[in-house]
Amino acid sequence: MKGILKIAYKLLVNDKGKFAALLVGITFAVFLMNMMTSMFAGILNKSSATVINIGARMWVMDPAVKTVASSIPMPDYVLDAVRSIKGVRYAVPLYSGGALVKLADGTYQNVTVLGLDDASLFGRPQLIEGRIEDIYSDNAFIVVKDSEYPKLGSPKIGTQFELNDHRVVITGLARVTTSGLFGVPTLYTTYTRAIQYIPNPRFTLSYILVEPKSRAAVPYIQKQIKALGYEALTNEQFMKKISNFYMYQTGLGTNVFLMTIISFIVGLSISGQTFYTFILENLDRFGAIKAIGARGRELVYMILFQAAFTALIGYGLGIGLSSLIIFLAKLRISSYAAMVTYRNLALAFVMVLVIAGISSYIGVRKVIKIEPFDIFRG
Amino acid sequence: MAAAENKNLAVKASGLVKWFGEGEAKTVAVRGVSFEAYFGEMLYIEGPSGSGKTTLLSMISGILRPNSGSVTVEGKDIWNLTNDQLADFRLNTVGFVFQDYHLFPRLSTRENVAIPLILKKVGWDEAMDRAIEYLEVVGLRERAHLQPVKLSGGEQQRVAIARAIASRPDLLIFDEPTASLDGDTGRRIVDFVKNNILNDKRCIMIVTHDNRIFEFADRIMRMEDGMIKGMEKGGNEK
Ligand SMILES: Nc1ncnc2c1ncn2[C@@H]1O[C@H](COP(=O)(O)OP(=O)(O)OP(=O)(O)O)[C@@H](O)[C@H]1O
Ligand SMILES: [Mg+2]
Asked: Which residues of B fall below an 8 Å CB-CB distance to A?
């Protein structure tokens, strides 16, 4: 068995031109698929940045909310009602909204403002400069030092600017795990200051962050909140909801899906076609091996091996190449939204196997049918 | 040859018939051929182009299924074997040297010769060592690492012979071995086969038009239009 596969390997690899063409086809397909799906994964991940950064176990919101950024404020009584539900360890308010900042040089910049519960500061970011207590001093805001940070003129502790005609003093620089999708800087302050600085319609409560007493309490809490006319989601459910929105309601998902399918088809046709030509050109050889005494099964193994070997190398090259490009892009543009996930790797792998499977199926059919006699008659 | 008189039966073909195509396009290539071949003999098959020689030998070597008739090799009715058994028969019992050699251009000479051994599941390294020995037999040891395209026609023919004998077949079949060789080279190869490859446990059948090599034959079977038109003693016996 091993020997015959070695022969198959040599027949494949020693035909350098064909082998290179096969690899190019598969590498290209894997590269495209991985790029597309990684970009999508990156975008989805960033779209849930706030959910990831705040880190609450459960989020209470208006059922119509689709993404974190577009919150629908709830009346204050909901917070009291949530707090009184059995199984809730604690519940705190979160303000999330947009504001306009006027920088020292007179230019304007959009920002996202997150207002944390005054008492607990639940969901606070990790400070890299400054002290968290200073958030309680006058006009205090913490700025997130991410790729959007320079858009505020790279403020330092003590830097001042105007936010909706209120004075803002930076008292801390923070780091978060995931930066947002929309390319605007993020400021943290207290809930009270946020609703005081940013004009709001009747209600101010963007989200309620809930810590359940145990995992088991989650369904009960969800039921109770549903009875109130609101929705309580675990962080995973919320992220899923946001992903679903981008995937199914924005055209983004459809586009990425189409591109992935197209790259699959391109890869399949290049590799399938090349593999088929390879088999055709080697039909004599397979015929000779059959005449010498190979069993049908052995010929099938040879072809499967050739297809699988090419597929695996092409997969490795494609993944390597796309990962390298994503890595380089991230070095240059730190907010570049692409993320190589295991799921995408698995998806690309499955598609490569399908490509190899279809290509070898065509080859196998051809080879099984060879009559060595037709070849030797000359 | 003494062995031929021993009548040690190697092959028995009875009533072989083979046609191709259907209806208008139907060609009957072999129409009822029966003969016997013996161990230790060199049997020639001669006849005009299209007379069915290749078709006949293909049926005898387990490559082409006849429409009717039977082939018994060493007492085995080969066309009643399963596909896998038939493959094993081709591997273990027959060595076929094809007219166009059908060597593998992407493999070295040595690897080409080792193919039957590898199919027999001999380990790679041992197969390579043994391939060298067979190349030695045909006088091409120094060419072991070259690709077949780098060899002359006569040398390629010898590689094909080395490959055919590598599986130690009892039945060795050559289809026009000298067709693409000049007269001298052809003679030398057949002479070589006669003296080095033929033995009394082996039967060799050769299809040829080349009367310069008739002298090596034990018997010559003449074919015409899919039928046997005569069987005579070869030049060897005269
Ligand atoms: N696959 C096929 N389809 C149709 N006809 C075929 C096929 N194979 C052989 N024939 C026909 O069968 C007849 C015998 O062919 P075969 O190749 O056995 O002749 P041959 O004696 O070996 O001739 P040559 O000396 O030219 O090699 C020819 O008429 C040929 O055209
Ligand atoms: Mg012929």
From this structure: 54-55, 58, 63-64, 83-84, 87-92, 94, 96, 98-100, 102, 104, 106-107, 111, 115-116, 118-119, 121-124, 127, 163, 167, 175
